[in-house]
Amino acid sequence: MMTTIGSIMSKNLLTVSPMASVGRASILMEQFKIGGLPVVEDGRLIGILTSRDVRRSHPNRLVADAMTKRVITVKPAASLWEARELLERHGIERLVVVEEGRPVGVVTKAQVLAELGKHEDALTGLNRAEFIQRKAVELLQQGKEITVIFFDLDDFGLIDKKLGHIFGDEVLRKVAQTMKSLMEEGVDYLCRYAGDEFAVVTTRPLEEAKKFARRVIEVLANEVWPEEVKVTASAGIAGGRRSNPRYSKREGAYSVSDLINMASLASTRAKKEGRSVVVAGQVELKEAVITMASATTFAGE
User: Would strands 94-99 and 73-74 be described as parallel, antiparallel, or unpaired?
Assistant: First the structure.
């Protein structure tokens, strides 16, 4: 089950009234070693008093006059990745967790990063497979089209057997770094799916996704690898066309599972046929439905 902010947040939330003095708030912040106090009035969040606000204000000044009114918040149901994105984008160390306008907790950057460490692949530093599932459902719920690209390294087992697992791990790390460098922020989301398999969920249209997959494969093939090994990959693609404009959370999850399965089957087919990229078609679609026992709402070509 995907970890949410609500499961790691600190529920013992220390707040301050807008009518309190900055001096009083400063004492609380120093006493409890915190860098910001949510300002709450009638149970609702109206601002936050930060260490910077305190330094800029006279101790006798009211919190209401010194506080920062724009508060970066997150919902309890938000994912760890959403929280990290907010923290990094705004350059802050904590997020107030809000539900229906009322603060219910706080989560720090340290808490988010520590928990994310449990969901990231130790070898490559990439997200694990569950990230793709979560991100794809999130994009669907935002009404966006998605395409899943499944990359499978060719004959990687031979590299392990010939040069050893330590060398093989180095190759996997370099593959991950190379692929990551080709991803466009806010468009492509990469994970190490398993072993020598990598997956991307992207908002690129199908035709553009095909070009992108070929580019990734070409860059890997042209990369200079130690011991003069050759690293090539095959890719399977599914999605890019939405036939059902509405998705519930459950329907979205089913669609994503099917797409990943279809893309994986397509990559296997590409490998068998000696092709760089194969787009999932009706054969893969039917097999996925039989295997998953669920309705697929995407179709390839």
Answer: parallel
